[in-house]
Write a structure and sequence with these properties.
homodimer; 761 residues; alpha/beta; Aminopeptidase; Glucose Oxidase, domain 1; seven-stranded mixed β-sheet; 23 helices; 39% helix; globular
Chain lengths: 761, 761
């Protein structure tokens, strides 16, 4: 399911910590969290480790893993899990399969037809095989095109085009005087996670929802279509889950607990994450006749897609019949493959790495391109172990099942092992889809410095620069302002975006409070086979990382990170970047509150001045907005105080660590640092609370969550930010107090760790 | 030819002169330039005047004037001129036709065909008649689709798509490693005046140029196409001139002098404004197979149009054969209709109003929608004269011929009468195309206050607000920043954009130095019939100002302005707004110079850092730019000093006028102000110099000119601005001195006028 928002822009100004970060020869720098001596040893092991991953192996793994459709419940899904299990064992890891039983509906009946208002048209809902592509003709094994967890329904209603189907689009519809009540909406993919579209449509009274891939974003407008090029062909369809995952991911029937055989389950009709209206995804070939039948107002300029015709909003005579019916039974079995290298010194400290193995169809890019790197990492670490390397901490490699329908395998496992993970997990590092281009890292800001350090030690296959340096220069090229460029050039570490949702880190980070990162390359190649039958070996080896060198680079980055975390004397958490980031979030929130006030005040003034009447074209009338109460000023003081405390504690920790480093060898030994490391492991847990976010208690993390109305995209400080966005001022004020308390606790933990560090002899 | 850039945005901050400008009841305010007493009389006349224009008359005029194609040299062009002459006479004006003989090539041979690299295709180059549209079938009388003043040529060459064909597009082509040398380019209309496209293409070595209307800007992407809606149908073509008018407009054979029978003429091959390569405009139906045959790199995102296909840049196998041959002889006769109401007190002070009467085909919108307002104005003023009104100054109404090929009729007349106009012209007010929506004014900033005052006295037909108020509220709605809104709300006058080119004011303002304005309504209706056979009575009465109420509003605005200028005691020039505007231009120039320095410095730094290598995708390589010398600092001091002097003189004039107003009646009488008025008439002339702009001496005005590489769009302070844009630093420094001297002279004139005002008893 994962969809990387590449190269997220730098959104905020910040303090800078150190002078220009040119590429430093790896060997000359002592690793953060290591004594000079242990750093040298570690660097030698890492060097050997990074030499192991082999593109040809990965090509072979991909060919095998993507040879047949391998969605949840399919024979090849199980077969792949067993093959991966065998591989982990072959590499010397202690591996097993862990099973869960989950709700996973598959299509029973699908109909989309234009019944009035245009030439009778029945949608094909079928992706044709392509002669040159040998796996595209496995129709009997392919899941039909559909959106998993759509409610069953059979509706006939007029059609309305709602652009991307996000809340702003409905504001514009309201101004145009168009209601979707009792209508079927047709929305294009993009600009939100797909599950948001039926959710918002249902909130506005729609009775059905179609989601189509418009060639403007996802088809011939971008370039040649498959098989001539990488882009989505006319009949290509994006499958995908529409469960309300911003409420809770995982099995809809077992929120918060592992879906074991005997777990207590909700009834299907009690599951809150199933959509309220029927939903189907369609291709642009199927969408074209429906959109062409629409009449009414011409769509606003930004709503117009690439289909080579006039887009209208409707409603009019065009009436659609939509049927969605699923097989809801029986429950399907998930096969999570879990493999371990036990820690030699601290076996109860777990460093975890994962990627899913299930695909919507053949899934060569998604997820196999990431999964093969994970396998090659496991092989490399196995080789090192055979050569005498002993990780201090336990290393766990996971190949998740059921990510596509809703992060099922990782979520159920993270729920099932909640207490253990809270006690033992040092960090979780995820990967998913991988491609050619820039190294993308997102995640916990306590690991921002760590992830930058890893990126400094991996070489970009195309430019031979470090992937860190290439990314820095790319960010300079993309920066919008001189201030942004200045920061990119001078700040020691490149900023990493926070994690929202869209892949298997979600339960670890946001439910369990485990510090998490997501690694992957991309940004150079386009594509249009996401969640279609064309995401296969043929496509990947023609249009993506065709010689698997970026898959090798990912394996090098992942393996380096795992080894370095497993071996560190002092766990490489860092709080200066973290405090700096939280301070930037606070600044954003204050700007957002101010901007909301200003906008409402300005709009009220314009209403009073008669701006909306004066600019109303009688041939294309718009409904004027209503005046709104100007928002109150919020009390940000608790957060401001907390951020001050956080900055002080981060500085304290930094100073204590410098002093420790100066003491040298013995003091820096892991044995002296057991208590500090325990606190460091605890540090991300402290950012959660038991109650979770308002109205979605599954999400415990108080700094990072997927947006309730964005789905993938992160909302940082979500309780505060979303309250402001939804104009819930009382809740915003309350949330400020809650988050401030969480941050004060975090600062206390950091201070405590600093004091322990200072006390080490 | 005129193409209004609607609702030009407010580009600069400024001083504000007076508190909020709510709509003031006309009768309560003393007119600027009038004593209280004469103001009252004037207002009574104006009230009567504005009651005269009648939509039904204008509908009848349009039906008649657009009944047949009436381009230069056609029988109906002459017939229309004679009919207009008759009308002016009927209205009581002293009218005559003035003739000129000009070069006007018409098509002899036109071929566009795809000869290699795709299915053989011969372009239709023909707009079909439409059954419901009664004038669309006059094929025998219609000028074929072509670009006037294309050089003759017969070329066969590979095709390259160059987006809009402006200089930035060629920079991007260079980075992509694509040369147009020896190629035929295909450019889409928009983002520059059309004549820029072949000019820039030829500068880059192209041998031919096709210009097409892309449906993204001009066709079905915008809405229903004709005859279902107002937008350009598949075979619709935009005719138009491609003469190098930014060098000099008017007859290519007689630059600077009137094209009278005996004028000394250049040979055709000596005429510098004829294109260097053959050019033809084509429809999107004709462009589609050519663009579809292009291979090579996929066009950059912003280059992609609306044709529902993948756009490529080329070159590749696609080869085009282009033939353009014209009938260059004989010279064609222009019929300018000139009508006068002689001034009763100051017959040698001329207030001039104009619009063209020639069209590319039937020309209902362009130019008849403006021409009918002009006629109704003349009728209204004639009515007033019959009722006893006597204008102090001479009023001249002009219906120009030959605007479409190159502002021929107005330019030849303004050249022929250069000395008289320099001596007598108070102001020139132009109109062209008119439609439904907002009142647009552009022009001389010494008349900014005057044009705002006129707008305050005309009622918007839809909202019943004054057109000024509606425009103000619209500008508030469109403003991008709080600062812009603040200025719009508080500044006494709305800013007016400067005039570039694109209609008949050009020679008056930029060659003769006559203060000029352009009036017209628009902004609510879209269209796609510009310069096609579908710009006719059927289209206008179905999709534009269908009940002619905005044509009436234009007649009311134009007639009010003419009467008010003709009757004023003191000519209503104002220098506060003017000085404020020049100061804003100076600020822009300094920002531009700084920005150019910063950009070059930053790019050099990125070249040194290796940004371009690091971000180069080996599958889609880009050529890195070369380092450039960082521009020197320019000496803006002469302009800064001149602007200070200008501000002082404007304040001096303002104060003297306030004192005069306080003295009341007798002092304010026109008879006391003869000398001051002479200076005021002279004020725009002082903004010109005899040498004209560097490399284009025809353009004498030192503040306003069409951009050498934009064609329509204005470049203010052009000698300085274009030197900076072209990185000619020495020339920029020299131009600053020249313009500063012009402005110092202007300030001296204003001071002198202020002193004379102060001396009036």
């Amino acid at each position: 399911m994962f969809r990387r928002t590449l190269l997220a822009s730098i959104l905020f100004a910040s303090l800078s910590f150190a002078p220009a970060g040119n590429h430093v020869i790896a060997e000359e720098q002592t690793l953060y969290g290591y004594s000079a001596e242990s750093s040298q040893t570690e660097r030698q092991w890492e060097e050997k480790l990074r030499a192991v991953p082999n593109p040809e192996n990965m090509r072979a793994y991909m060919k095998l893993l993507s040879a047949h459709p391998h969605h949840v419940g399919s024979p090849y899904d199980k077969q792949n899990a067993e093959w991966i299990l065998g591989k982990f064992k072959e590499f010397g890891l202690d591996a097993q399969i862990e099973q869960f039983d989950v709700l996973f509906p598959t299509p029973k009946e699908r109909v989309v037809e234009l019944v009035e208002g245009g030439p009778k048209f029945v949608a094909k809902l079928q992706e044709p095989a392509v002669a040159v592509d040998p796996t595209s003709n496995q129709q009997a094994e392919q899941l039909p095109t559909y959106n998993a967890y759509s409610i069953d329904g059979d509706v006939t209603a007029p059609l309305v085009y709602v652009n991307y189907g996000v809340p702003e689009d409905y504001e514009q519809l309201e101004r145009m005087g168009v209601s979707v009540k009792g209508k079927i909406v047709i929305a294009r993919y993009y600009h939100s996670w797909r599950g948001i579209k039926p959710k918002v449509a249902a909130e506005h009274g729609a009775v059905g929802c179609l989601i189509f891939s418009d060639p403007h974003e996802d088809g011939f407008v971008q370039g040649e279509t498959f098989p001539s090029g990488p882009y989505r062909p006319p009949d290509g369809v994006q499958r995908g889950s529409v469960a309300d995952m911003p409420l809770y991911p995982g099995d809809p029937l077992t929120p918060g607990v592992g879906a074991t055989k005997d777990a207590k389950r909700l009834k299907v009709e009690e599951a809150q994450t199933i959509t309220k209206i029927p939903v189907l995804p369609i291709s642009y070939a199927d969408a074209q006749p429906l959109l062409a039948a629409l009449t009414g107002r011409v769509a606003p300029a930004e709503w117009r897609g690439g289909l080579g015709m006039t887009y209208h909003v409707g409603p009019g005579a065009a009436k659609v019949h939509l049927v969605v019916k699923s097989n809801w039974e029986p429950l399907k079995t998930l096969y999570d493959v879990i493999a371990k290298i036990p820690g030699s010194t601290f076996p109860d400290e777990w460093v975890i790495r994962g990627n899913h193995h299930d695909g919507w169809v053949n899934g060569a890019e998604d997820p196999v391109s990431g999964q093969i790197a994970i396998l090659e990492e496991a092989r490399a670490l196995g080789e090192m172990a055979k050569a005498g390397w002993k990780p201090k901490r336990t290393i766990i490699y996971c190949a998740w099942d059921g990510e596509e329908p809703g992060l099922l395998g990782s979520t159920e496992w993270a729920e099932q092992h909640y207490d253990e993970l809270r006690a033992h997990a040092v960090a979780y590092i995820n990967s998913d889809t991988n491609g050619r281009g820039y190294f993308g890292v997102e995640g916990s800001h306590t690991l921002e410095k760590f992830s930058n350090d890893v990126a400094r030690d991996v070489t970009d296959p195309e430019t031979k620069l470090s992937v860190w340096k290439r990314d820095q220069l790319h960010k300079i090229a993309d920066a919008k302002t001189a201030e942004q460029r200045e920061e990119i050039r001078k700040r020691a570490d490149l900023r990493i975006p926070a994690l929202g949702s869209g892949s298997d880190y979600t339960a670890f980070l946001q439910h369990d409070g485990v510090a998490s990162l997501n690694f992957g390359f991309g940004g150079e190649d386009g594509g249009g086979i996401y969640h279609s039958i064309y995401d296969d070996f043929y496509w990947y080896t023609h249009f993506s990382d065709t010689d698997f060198v970026y898959c090798r680079a990912l394996a090098q980055a992942g393996a380096t990170a795992m080894m370095r975390l497993a071996d560190a004397d002092l766990l490489p958490f860092e709080f200066g970047d973290f405090a700096d980031t939280v301070q930037a979030y606070l600044k954003e929130l204050k700007v957002l509150a101010q901007k909301t006030q200003d906008e409402i005040r300005e709009r009220n003034r314009e209403i009073e001045e008669g701006v909306f009447q004066a600019t109303n074209d009688p041939r294309r009338p718009l409904v004027a907005p209503s005046a709104e109460a100007v928002p109150p000023h919020l009390n940000f003081a608790p957060l401001e105080n907390a951020v001050d405390t956080l900055n002080r504690s981060a500085a304290e920790y930094h100073k204590a660590l410098e002093q420790l480093n100066a003491k040298g060898g013995a003091a820096m030994a892991a044995s002296s640092l057991v208590e500090v490391n325990k606190l460091l492991i605890e540090s991300e847990r402290r950012l959660t609370n038991a109650e979770g976010l308002p109205n979605r208690p599954w999400f415990k993390h108080q700094l990072y969550a997927p947006g309730f109305y964005t789905g993938y995209a992160v909302k940082t400080v979500p309780a505060v930010r979303e309250a402001i966005e939804l104009k819930q001022w009382k809740q915003a004020d309350e949330a400020i107090v809650v988050v401030a308390r969480v941050l004060e606790n975090e600062a206390a933990l950091i201070s405590s760790a600093a004091q322990k560090l200072a006390a080490v002899k």
